[in-house]
Design brief:
By secondary structure, the protein is α+β, with helices and mostly antiparallel strands. The chain has 14 helices and 17 strands. The protein has a five-stranded antiparallel beta sheet. Strands 7-6-10-9-8 form a five-stranded antiparallel beta sheet. The protein has a five-stranded mixed beta sheet with strand order 12-14-15-17-16, covered by helices on one side. The longest helix is centred in the middle third of the chain and has 60 residues.
Length: about 525
């Protein structure tokens, strides 16, 4: 900003210098024209005409001469006088009379013997501190016909320039000895050290500042003067300091307000969250036996608390359900362990019967005991839910042998399956209940031979097992059956086991026509060949 101010100030100072030089050139040109006008010299030398007539003639001559030569009017604040050889004023543009008798006593007036010896001096109080040219008008006979006096009122001109400029600053005119010739303000001054520095800076065109003022200077060789301007920095930077101070205050106020608002918003958010965290910790320590207050926080925090209460309620219900299921599981485990005791006892009893029968040479009873033992031994193995199809068919065949003793082998059982499905995994004891139903419900009231077909096929990625008989059908069987004290559990047990093992992929369907019943099992195909098979 100082550089910008300096550039504008120096430009104004350059304009002042150029204007003063132009004015001096105008003074020089005017003096040259007037001093070479022979008719004007003759009018000044002729004492035969009266003063008024001579003044009128000189005035008209000057106007006519300027029009003929095409000269512009003299610059503002430039004045002139024509004085005859008797020191009488013929014509003047000064506003007041000048006592030329007093001027004749001055050295510069006495020594002005011709144009070549003109003396450029400051007149002092006699001509209101003007810069003056004096030119002698010498006639053909060598006598002095008159004198031309051209003055430049630089004080008024400098004040007018000062009022004209947009950048207001003080202007000084200083001579080579450091004296102030003119200044735009009576109170303005330049210290001697500053004047010395400014004179040195005039040669380089730079500026000088002491922190309070910014000064430039130019040298006028024709006048042998320095023109100096002084710009007070406080008038400019003082306003900037005030603006800066206001900006700092406003910025600090906004920052403080932002911090307060941020703290308030943060407190409104973090406080409910802290309370929510505290209550959550208490609820977790109490094993979800309590809930959050209904009016904890607002907006999203309250919604979060409501959601947490719902989650806590769900967790309590799940915990309660798990406890019930755990108790049921323990009860089922106890019943299962208890139920295992009877098959063990029966198995041992069957072994005793078998050996007794063998001792008496009764092979049929011994074979029945062996087949029944296989079924009981399979039921004792509670570690596996899925067995190979080959093993399941072995159990079915054992059961069929037992039943054929009762039905005197008039029930024929056929097995239809592909050898590649021997090691397909099927639910344990899934075919035996279906074959049992065919014997008891399908053939109990029949007098003719019965037929049961066990069919196992692959369909896409599913395994289908079918048990089909030619019995009396489900409807007729239900009509002939006496009332039972307990409901049958075979089909329902199998259906539930399919749901537990395969979810929705396990299906059991039963259909019956006028004669015969078809039960169809469908579940995913799982193959598990024994390790080392085929080696």
């Amino acid at each position: 900003m100082k550089e910008k101010i300096s550039s504008q100030s120096y430009a104004q100072l350059g304009y002042v210098k150029e204007s003063m030089e132009n004015i001096r050139v105008a003074l020089f040109r005017e003096s040259l024209v007037l001093s070479n006008d022979k008719e004007l010299q003759a009018a000044l030398r002729d004492d035969s005409i009266n003063t008024e007539t001579r003044q009128l003639y000189v005035t008209e001559r000057l106007q006519e001469k300027r029009l003929q030569d095409g000269f512009t009017p003299l610059p503002t604040h430039v004045y002139y006088s024509l004085i005859d050889h008797r020191h009488q004023e013929v014509i003047t543009t000064f506003g007041s009379k000048i006592n030329y008798t007093d001027l004749a006593s001055e050295d510069w007036w006495k020594n002005s013997e011709g144009f070549e010896k003109q003396n450029n001096q400051m007149i002092g109080k006699s001509l209101r501190d003007m810069y003056t040219f004096t030119v002698d008008m010498v006639g053909p006979d060598g006598n002095l016909d008159g004198r031309i006096l051209l003055s430049f009122d630089y004080v008024e001109w400098l004040n007018a320039m000062h009022r004209f400029f947009t950048i207001r600053q003080e202007y000084f005119i200083m001579n080579q000895s450091g004296g102030i010739v003119a200044k735009t303000s009576p109170a303005a001054f330049i210290s001697d050290p500053a004047a010395e520095v400014v004179r040195r800076q005039a040669a380089t065109g730079g500026f000088w500042t002491n922190g309070q003022e910014l000064m430039h200077a130019v040298y006028l060789p024709s006048y042998q003067w320095y023109v100096i301007n002084s710009f007070p920095l406080h008038t400019f930077f003082g306003d900037i300091d005030q603006v800066k101070h206001r900006l700092v205050v406003i910025l600090a106020s906004f920052v403080l307000l932002f911090i307060v608002i941020t703290f308030i918003i943060s407190h409104r958010i973090t406080r409910p969250l802290q309370l929510l965290q505290h209550h959550m910790s208490v609820i977790v320590r109490n094993e979800f036996r309590s809930s959050l207050p209904e009016k904890l926080g607002t907006g999203e925090v309250r919604e979060l608390g409501t959601t947490f209460n719902r989650m806590s309620s769900d967790i309590r219900h799940l915990i309660q359900k798990l406890k019930v299921e755990e108790r049921e599981k323990e009860a089922s485990r106890f019943q299962m362990l208890l139920a295992q005791m009877n098959p063990h006892f029966l198995l041992n009893t069957l072994n005793a019967i078998k050996w007794t029968a063998l001792g008496r040479k009764d092979t049929e009873i011994a074979e029945i005991c062996v087949c029944l033992g296989e079924l009981l031994e399979s039921s004792l193995n509670v570690q596996t839910d899925l067995i190979h199809l080959d093993e399941e068919l072995t159990l079915v065949k054992a059961y069929v042998r037992i039943q054929n003793f009762r039905f005197d082998s008039y029930v024929n059982v056929r097995y239809e399956y592909d050898e590649s499905l021997r090691y397909a995994l099927v639910p344990k004891l899934s075919l035996q209940p279906l074959v049992e139903n065919s014997f008891y419900h399908g053939f109990a009231q029949m007098q003719q031979e019965g037929s049961i077909t066990i069919r196992v096929v692959k369909e896409h990625q599913s395994l289908i097992m079918e048990v089909e008989d030619n019995g009396i059908g489900m409807k007729a069987s239900a009509n002939h059956q006496p009332l039972r004290k307990s409901k049958g559990i075979g089909i329902n047990n199998l259906r539930e086991r399919l749901q537990l093992l395969f979810k929705s992929d396990g299906q059991l369907e039963a259909s019956s026509s006028g004669q015969g019943t078809l039960v169809r099992l469908k579940f995913p195909l799982l193959l598990s060949e024994p390790y080392g098979k085929g080696e």
